[in-house]
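Data card: per-record layout.
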Amino acid sequence: MNTQRTTTRQISQGLWLGLLGIVIFSVTLPMTRMAVGTADAPQMSGFFIAMGRAVVAAALSGAFLLLTRAPLPRRSDWLPLTITAGGVVFGFPLFTSIAMRYVDAMHASVIVGILPLATAAVGALLHRQRPSLGFWLCAALGSALVAVFAVMHGGASTTAVAAGGVSVHGADLLLVAAMLCAAVGYGYGGRLSQRMQAEHVICWALVMALPLTLPLAAYHWPTVPLQSNAWWGFAYVAVFSMWLGFFAWYRGLALGGTVRVSQVQLVQPFLSMLVAVPLLGEKLDAVTVGFGVAVIATVFIGKKMPVSQRVPT
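The structure for this 313-residue chain is written out next.
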């Protein structure tokens, strides 16, 4: 009974910490849009935002690791740390930063809705968990809603490409690639957080990546004057999106399980839409709100579906 009560408490704590991380991450796309600008009024390059935010976060991480006297990762941890860095330090920031110049934050925030399914799939594989059919149906439904939304809104952009009578943003393909990178980074980072301090996982990943991110950021340093808003957006994604958000997120994944806590990400699209209204002056339309609410609704059903541990054979 006590063990069951402890497990239930850990899952609850994991969900709340995961939600805190998602609240922080939900501001990432609007802030990235602010930093990168639009096709008509460009600001920072996507390469600089992606690499520069990693450099700032790596500097903070180095100080944090020293202050907490963090032990060096074990030899067996270096490969998963490298994979984690590839997903959340390089892949996700780079693809989203490039894409956000061509689509607004409202549109991109709904595309993010496919992330829970991808994260759950990676988590189930890594942690040998067996989600129920109902769980997968809920996750698949949320992802299908996102795909339909992308096709319906595809024709509204000058970067859209037509195929088979439908239009899809070229930037949507970058956003999908970003989601896949994030899912892999979340999955491996979440597993590492079960044997390392959660805060140390992202810190070591950032420090490991510094020999690449630092010269790339220096090479892509802006050469023209930028609006102050662009620097504010950059500061947010560097300190919160790239660093502090992962403290809560990886701890939540470790406590509640990657498969289950990943579904909390389904609230991210709507939170991003709410932020984009005052921050960027974007307007909510009925279709976007409708799809956002429908996607969010699946998390409340999906998180109640059973997730069992596979029995070793």
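Known properties of this structure: Confidence is low (pLDDT under 50) at residues 155-167. The first strand starts at residue 129 and ends at 131.

See the next section for split statistics.
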